[in-house]
Amino acid sequence: MLHQDLISFLNTSAIRRSDFSAALGTSGAYLVFSNSGKRGSVKKFNLSLESMLAGLEDMKSNISAFSASQYYEESKWRDLGSRYFNDNVLNSIVTVQTKPVFTTFSKIICWANDLQYAGDSNIPITLETLTKAIEKIQLIIAEYTPKDISTKKQTSQQTILNTLGTQCTLSKPFILLAGISGTGKSRFVRQQAAAQGNEKEFLQMVPVRPDWHEPSDLLGYVSRIGGATKFIVTDALRFMVKAWRAAGAEVITLPDGRAGWAGKPLDSINTYWLCLDEMNLAPVEQYFADYLSVIESRSWLYDGDAQGQDYLYCCEPILPASALQVVTDQNALARELGLDIDSPADQQLWDAFLQHGIPVPFNLVVAGTVNMDETTHGFSRKVIDRALTFDFGRFFPNDFANLWAGQPVPKILGFARYSHASPELLADCKEDSDGLKTISFLQAVNDVLRDTPFELAYRALNELLLAVICHSPADESALQAVWDDFMMCKVLPRIEGDDEKLSVSSDTVKAENLLDKLEQILEKQLTAIWSTNRPELLLESANPVPCRSKAKLIWMKERLERNSFTSFWP
């Protein structure tokens, strides 16, 4: 048994020479460790393996901060623990018994990685050593958990993890979750963040206020009140910096003067979720203008083009360097943003921000929850073109009939890793390895939309090809399912108007309706799924579903006939 192996390790002579004893509990999944007794009597402390596991996961999530403190310094480690350990018991102990906690983590990590214990003042912290320690502690916890109740006594976090499926890479870093109130849009984002390991760590909820009318409401602003020049920091900006810290990327100044962010590997980096709750209570084009502009500047290079790194990411700053450079006390601003200027990694990050500004982190997904009613603002095509719009009730339906049996399980959505489609990226897509089928499909759709306000441009084609790359469909039905979802996310949300606006010229005397023509062309293009069910791409182990764009077009046509006006939104 694995816990017996840990007991043996903690009984070795190297561990017994430590000033701080440590042992695995004899009657349960907990650790018993002590202080040194040099300042009084020896005191012992109990810490559950669940708390130890949570601490290891917090260290991994904040690897740049912890890896810079592998040599023990009391004040630094006490501050790291109080700041990053989310487990209440562990957080309390580390502030008063800092070195005992430090050495206990060191022993666990050494044991899990078959390393020699190097003494009470060193701890081997890397992504690899933490990952192995997490895996082995999870196995020991399982050994102590009775099999007949293991599914009933999970932590709330693990319960959330078990309700989510495998990961699906997003083609865009900005999504809109649109639907009526109470369908679970905000809860969906919380679950996605929890799937990364800890909801509190990977999620920032920002309630949008109706009086927001400029980017400073979201990103902060320069203030000169009181003489000194300060920058007023917002939660959203602080969270972006947090995502950058977790990414652990190093900055490279490119020949054209831009900043490139490089590192390796992407699979070890978590997705951070910034949720703008009730996003359209204020005009999105006004307070969100900077983000809408900057995300179009994202670009990725991989392999040989990435200067020896696994990737090279470039993005224009969402907050320019000039807004940081004018601040009187720049060190205070760095701390306000959550940076530890005593950490070499954080100092390097801060220097890059001062020189180049703060770009949108590549590991950040912005999710806006949206209700379309008389209290909210509509979306322009500029916003829709830059987002993935999910009609929440159709993509992630509430199944009342299976309330107690369990709702459909959504896949875990990972941050976007591509910005521009290419033949190299398409090469692994079995059903459309050169992209020609997808190009032909969108050309046919655009022929219907030509000379209307809803005509598509290069951005739409690029994003459809990116969707094909992300889903990598293996057969014709799966490929057409990608096209179907693209119609729902990017094309149909742009269409709205009355009878006159939606009429199109024709060779016949009678003008045709745009929706009728679109339905006709989709019936020809989506032959594999139009009259039968299609694969589900965003739900785990889900049954096939009817063609979504067909049902939505019928709904929009009926609404137009009934009211002489229609739109994608309810």
How is this structure best described in words?
Residues 147-165 have low confidence and may be disordered. Helix 5 (74-84) runs antiparallel to helix 6, helix 7 (98-112) crosses helix 8 and helix 22 runs antiparallel to helix 25 (514-525). Helix content is 42%, strand content 15%. It is of the alpha/beta class and 570 residues long. The longest helix is centred in the first third of the chain and has 18 residues, at 127-144. It has 3 domains: 2-148, no CATH class; 167-173 and 181-370, no CATH class; 420-567, no CATH class. A 5-stranded parallel beta sheet has the order 6-11-16-5-17, with helices on both faces.
Mean pLDDT: 88
Determine the fraction of residues in helical runs and give it as a percent range. 40-55%
| Class per helix and strand makeup | alpha/beta
Give unreliable regions as ranges: 147-165
Helix tally?
26
